[in-house]
Amino acid sequence: MGKKNESGKYRGRVQIGVDKDGKPINKYVCASTMRELEHKKEEVRQHYIDGVPIREDMPFYQYAEEWYKVRKEPFISEASRSAYRSMLMKHILPAFGLRHLRAITANELQVFVNTFAGLSKSQITIVIGILKAVMKGAYADGIIPRDPSVSLIRPKAKKKESRRALTDREREHVLVTIKRHPDGLLLAILYYCGLRRGEALGLRWEDFDFESDTIHIQRDIDFVGSTSHDGTLKTEAADRFVPIPADLREMLLPLRSLPGVYLFHQADGRPLSQSTFKRKWLSLMEDCYCVQDREIDENTDRPNDIRKRLKPTLTPHYFRHNYITMLYEGGIDPLIAMKIVGHTDYQTTANIYTHLSEETMRRASVNLDDVFQKKAKKKATKSGASARSRKPPVDTSLPWANKF
Questions:
Q1: What's the rounded Cα separation, in Å, for the pair 230 and 203?
Q2: CATH number among 1.10.150, 1.10.3470, 2.60.120, 3.30.1490, domain 60-140
Q3: Phi-psi category of 302—alpha, beta or left, where left has phi over 0 and alpha has psi -120 to 50?
Q4: Among candidates 361, 325, 320, which has minimal Cα distance to 342?
Q5: Closest among 156, 136, 160 to 146, alpha carbons compared
Q6: Phi, psi for residue 132 in degrees, rounded to 5
Q7: Pick the residue with more confidence: 78 or 70?
Q8: Which of 14, 223, 249, 259 could form a Cys-Cys staple with 44, CB 3.0–4.6 A?
Q9: pTM flag (> 0.70)
Q10: Alpha-carbon distance 117 to 98, whole Å?
Q11: Integer Cα distance of 216 and 300 in angstroms
């Protein structure tokens, strides 16, 4: 049991052995609380009896770097590495980097996490994941006496924007743009194949089999800063064969090139960079009349850049949802649709099909309402006409006869 000394701290003793005369060998430790004292005593036991080295307190950034290099970076994709590095450098390290691990409290972590309320679910997941992993690791390594992240509460993320199929008008504009725009093939691949953005940008001519009219989806493009390079597919199910519709085949055949050449590439043959893709996409969406104007003032950097002037109302993923909608409308079984679009879980495809079915039922319900309303109006008109025909003649001799 520890006792308080004159400085107000608790002092404890740990026996780590005996000397040659059989007398105990003790080590003494001090701490501000009994809990911390017990933790330090356990460290002493592990160090002197079990041979575990005692790790001193250290700044958050030092341990976070160690954690990332050893326990995170080797196990995630390059795109995920970029997201983790960005979160650390832009948000977490400016807030806690120079703070010592033992000085960071649970309330401080929660206050910081609360600032992410209303942001995307993925950002909140990454920031909480990093804080929990770093603190849990520091606790496991004996650097901190308790893990202040265990009680972190996840703030509410912004409501995820629901995807939808294209409207009839949007489809008309898209089909016109596909035919007339210099980058129409990019839009055609997304429209006719329902690929993810990275899958479309990762296509090479070797992936096309015009005898069986299929495309083998076998790579993804990761954006890391201003560079792009081959990455792994999102899931194992994403490695799949997608049918080539006749309209797309007609566009592809005259453009065929060498097997290792990307369909969409820069002048040096490398896949499109993120900035180049965004410019091309905005140009395509502008041609489809699917953009909104951004506000530009005197402080706007590069105001003539299309990325600063316009915001697309459709993203590449809308075309994936539209493709699944077209599979549904075409009567394609959800199990087959699941294979075509590369979903890992059947339930994902089934949920979309169910949603589309509900939409169909709602439209049918609206149509039925119109039918019944028209029937009711027609019946009312007939009843009115019949009533007028049965109206008794007016007695013109009455004093109010010509008043109404």
A1: 10
A2: 1.10.150
A3: left
A4: 320
A5: 136
A6: -65, -45
A7: 70
A8: 14
A9: no
A10: 24
A11: 43
pLDDT digits (tens, 9 = 90+) for 255-306: 999 999 999 999 999 999 988 999 999 999 999 999 998 887 777 777 777 8
CA 264/CA 4 separation, integer angstroms = 72
| C-alpha–C-alpha distance, residues 61 and 67, integer Å | 10
| CATH 1.10.150 location in the chain | 60-140
The pair of three-digit structure tokens given for residue 82, joined into one six-digit string: 């970029």
Helices (H) and strands (E) in the chain, counts: 15, 10
- Shortest CA distance to 310 belongs to which of 288, 290, 292, 287? 292
Fold of 168-341: hpI Integrase; Chain A (1.10.443)
CA distances from 91 to 108, 128, 174, 217 (A): 14, 12, 39, 36
Q: So what's the pLDDT on residue 404?
A: 41
H, E, C per residue of 252-314? HHHHCCCCCCECCECCCCCECCHHHHHHHHHHHHHHCCCEEECCCCCCCCCCCCHHHHEEECC
52-73 residue pLDDT tens: 565 678 999 999 999 999 999 9
Average pLDDT value over all residues in the chain: 84
d(CA 183, CA 53) in angstroms, rounded, equals 61
Token output for 204: 């090479």
Contacts of 115 (CB under 8 A, 6+ apart): none
For residues 373 and 172, what is the distance between their CA atoms, to the nearest angstrom? 32
